[in-house]
Amino acid sequence: MSALNTARSTAFIRLRQEGRTDEVARRLVEAIELGLFAEGQQLPSESELALQLGVATVTLREALVVLRQRGLIETRRGRNGGSFVCAPVELPEALLLQRLKDISGPDLRDLGDEHMAISGTAARLAAQRSSPEQHARIAQHIDALHSAQTRQARHRADARFHIEVAAAAQSLRLTNAEMRLQSEVGELLWLDAIGGKDVSLVEQEHRAILQAMVNNDVVLAGALAEAHVMRGIKRLIGLRLELLAEGDETA
Question: Transmembrane segments in this chain: where (predicted)?
């Protein structure tokens, strides 16, 4: 199974039987926003998606309504009809800055703690379990980050690196958790306000994590991944404090 298919199957990891429409919609939104489905690509059929998620078809249909309302998919009728992924829309930086301001300090710190735990554990397990083929696929996402020209493209390449490291750890739960975190906070890390156009440091950190995995260095891989996440969260905390201070000055 390819890394892309692995990530997609993780997006559709079965929910609890009481899985609600908003949870189904969240999983699908994550998969689309993180680039697991390409623009114009057709989603699996409603019956197939409902089966993969372990929910009723009516719940899946309600979730697809949410995606259509958000402009993430369009539904085409007829013989070759179905749900197709729309072109991604990059959110205005002002909207992302407001989102960052709305996150409380303790919540942002907790997000960082959770992300360090997930990414660090995934890197350690990947250093033990990953294959040369997986290393090559992870390296492709580092190269994609190097050549990315937009905030959305940088976010996707960065997110896919972390998701594929978790997939290389051979843990569906870790991969699903990484996807959720990347969807929740990942795009904020590429705000121009914290140097989102300068990818060189992140690229170097990614390559160092990958090299530790290739060398089967469990301790170093985990430590590098945790430090990488911590630096990103610290930048966000610093920016949030600046935004709040600016708001106080203009009040």
Answer: none
